[in-house]
């Protein structure tokens, strides 16, 4: 009889910080750029070059630490992690092993069983390595050092997660928190947030952890969920066959939806850490911590709480809108202008979400200004344009942030409230559709909808729907 197994998961999450320059030099951190153009002697590891610590990196790390309930290490320092790899120009990485900047925190996630705390063991600062590009045609690997020296924080969790769903909830919470802080854009597709998954299985009720494997190369939430399910099944299968799980690093292949071993524990590197001699320790005062604390923005949990108090919008809408800082800011600024939270929410939840999905875009890419959304809502409320015209104007606004008032004026989209012109059009529609008129008199309510549609079509969508209905009913009676 097969046994019941429990999955035990811990994560190491690397986050690229949103500084303009690298951690130890003044080279640009901008994503993209021609290979090896954002480089200098420091980030390419030239002999005799000396690192100088970027203060903003320390402040971002402290901000993330405070937001994830960590204690800040008052006396923190850097260490050299020695390893030899072509993307690592100095043959060591400057990181933090012994005295990381943040320790012993937690984040709260929502699970089907309720709220759960996932503990954070530590957060440390380090520099990123360069990027190896494998050219299969030429059968060579080439190195781009643009990313070398980009500042990272590594957030190391305790093994507190038990399923792919909990892992995704934890990552979503981290991503939202860090985006709200402005510490990183956390774009998985650009590598500014990367997760390594440490996973083991054990029999339910067993106090001992099983042998864990580490999975790398996970650059989307979908890949992470698939990798967890795949590795869990692989380990259970081995145990059911009476074989042992080998402690190793595995690489996930998203195309094949399977993982393969990269290196086992037996040949894993001993990094031979020692204190970084070129950087002084960081002494963090209580005043500095308080200054960072005073600058912390309102994070998502507090925002949700405030939305419940201040705005009459459904809980589901509030959850989606606060999911990204950009959407929440857009909602609040538009509401401040027009004082109509429910209508702002409807536009964001309806047309905005639809167009984001159709165009494969993220909420951060929304370009229209809050002033323009507020103006569109006012145009509809004043009866200047009707619902269908409003959707047409909104699509244009979504694409290129046009001023809706000017656009409506230029395109002649204002609602026709001229009763004489409407009556004339409706009389013609009635004359042209005797069958529908007969159907209406025979009690078929759909016929009315058809006649309204024909009128709107004749008026190029610019008729006042209430007037159309009223005149139609009068003439048909």
UniProtKB/TrEMBL annotation:
InterPro entries membership: Asn/Gln-tRNA_amidoTrfase_suB/E, Asn/Gln-tRNA_Trfase_suB/E_cat, Asn/Gln_amidotransferase, Asn/Gln_tRNA_amidoTrase-B-like, GatB, GatB_C_1, GatB_Yqey_C_2, Gln-tRNA_amidoTrfase_suB_CS
Residue ranges of coiled coil: none
Keywords recorded for this protein, A-Z: ATP-binding, Ligase, Nucleotide-binding, Protein biosynthesis, Transferase
Reactions listed under catalytic activity: L-glutamyl-tRNA(Gln) + L-glutamine + ATP + H2O = L-glutaminyl-tRNA(Gln) + L-glutamate + ADP + phosphate + H(+); L-aspartyl-tRNA(Asn) + L-glutamine + ATP + H2O = L-asparaginyl-tRNA(Asn) + L-glutamate + ADP + phosphate + 2 H(+)
EC top class, as a word: ligase
Enzyme Commission code: 6.3.5.-
Residue stretches spanning the membrane: none
GO MF assignments: asparaginyl-tRNA synthase (glutamine-hydrolyzing) activity; ATP binding; glutaminyl-tRNA synthase (glutamine-hydrolyzing) activity; transferase activity
Any Gene Ontology biological process: translation
One Pfam family here: GatB_Yqey
Subunit structure, interactors included: Heterotrimer of A, B and C subunits.
PANTHER family referenced in this protein's UniProt entry, alphabetically: GLUTAMYL-TRNA GLN AMIDOTRANSFERASE SUBUNIT B MITOCHONDRIAL AND PROKARYOTIC PET112-RELATED (PTHR11659), GLUTAMYL-TRNA(GLN) AMIDOTRANSFERASE SUBUNIT B, MITOCHONDRIAL (PTHR11659:SF0)
Family according to the record: Belongs to the GatB/GatE family. GatB subfamily.
The protein's role, per its UniProt record: Allows the formation of correctly charged Asn-tRNA(Asn) or Gln-tRNA(Gln) through the transamidation of misacylated Asp-tRNA(Asn) or Glu-tRNA(Gln) in organisms which lack either or both of asparaginyl-tRNA or glutaminyl-tRNA synthetases. The reaction takes place in the presence of glutamine and ATP through an activated phospho-Asp-tRNA(Asn) or phospho-Glu-tRNA(Gln).
UniProt name for this protein: Aspartyl/glutamyl-tRNA(Asn/Gln) amidotransferase subunit B
Organism: Eubacterium ramulus ATCC 29099
Gene name as annotated: gatB
